[in-house]
UniProtKB/TrEMBL annotation:
Organism, scientific name: Hymenobacter lapidarius
Residue ranges occupied by any DUF4440 domain in the UniProt entry: 27-136
Protein name (record): DUF4440 domain-containing protein
Length: 144
């Protein structure tokens, strides 16, 4: 992910603009932290960016999965070793705030896997701020 431009707003909307900038920065931090964990082969660390709730929903090629633990278990089954996990990269991120504590993120993912073959696709995340932290509450990911 490239550098970010930062504008400081003044006037009546300055508080909202600053809050929005902080939200976007917080969301980017979650995604950067997840990428780093994945690239270390740390699926539990990657999962820290997800809402630790039975209400979490992940939609992939096999349909919806509900709950944090089931999502973790599915990741562990689908990516049993570092070679299968590869190196994750997100690009083309578009973050849209829906409310002060909710956002959607659209982007592209790519796994560089020299021995297992590269895979890539797109995703749509719904993120919520829970307990002051941004987390993924819903993840719809596809592969090409």
């Amino acid at each position: 992910m490239g550098g970010q431009a930062c504008a400081v707003a003044t006037g009546p909307g300055a508080g909202a603009a600053a809050r929005d900038q902080a939200a976007v920065a917080g969301i980017r931090t979650v995604l950067t932290t997840q990428t780093a964990a994945w690239n270390r082969g740390d699926i539990p660390g990657f999962m820290q960016g997800y809402w630790k709730s039975d209400s979490l929903v992940f939609i992939g090629r096999r349909g919806p999965t509900y709950g944090w633990q089931q999502t973790l278990d599915n990741y562990r089954k689908g990516y049993p070793d570092a070679a299968t996990m590869g190196q994750l990269d997100f690009s083309g991120l578009r973050i849209s705030l829906l409310a002060p504590n909710a956002a959607q993120v659209v982007g592209r993912w790519h796994l560089a896997r020299p021995s297992a073959g590269d895979v890539q696709g797109h995703f749509l995340l719904v993120m919520r701020q829970v307990g002051g932290q941004w987390v993924v509450a819903a993840d719809h990911t596809n592969s090409e």
